[in-house]
Write a structure and sequence with these properties.
Blueprint lengths: L1 E6 L2 E4 L4 E9 L6 E7 L6 E7 L5 E3 L7 E6 L4 E6 L8 E8 L13 E6 L1
């Protein structure tokens, strides 16, 4: 089992920046992908970005491409999401999760961190 703890959310004005962190503990050696998701009020949870833990390959949702950057620090077992040029529509609870291979679903969800972007 992997335990994930998100941090770094907050209130920011449109155009501003935030950096989210996701600290992992437990059986982290089983992690193949780590990903960021978000859920806005009244909407379904959506994919934001993911990173391959071993080689750092990344994938982004079109809505955040060019504004958000996902990264990881293997030594600290921590994943980051640098969010720039934030928009009000980025307001959501942001979650991190892990995936053990290409055929597995994401799991080990963190508790989430609230990001609010004011206009």
């Amino acid at each position: 089992q992997v335990q994930l703890v998100e941090s770094g959310g907050g209130l920011v004005q449109a155009g501003g920046s935030l950096r989210l962190s996701c600290a992992a503990s437990g059986r982290t050696f089983s992690t193949y992908y780590m990903g960021w998701f978000r859920q806005a009020p009244g909407k379904e949870r959506e994919f934001v970005a993911r990173i391959t833990w071993s080689n750092g390959n990344t994938l982004y949702a079109d809505s955040v491409k060019g504004r958000f950057t996902i990264s990881r620090d293997n030594a600290k077992n921590t994943m980051y999401l640098q969010m720039n040029s934030l928009k009000p529509e980025d307001t959501a609870v942001y979650y991190c999760a892990t995936r053990t291979n290409n055929y597995a679903a994401y799991g080990n969800w963190g508790q989430g961190t609230q990001v609010t972007v004011s206009s």
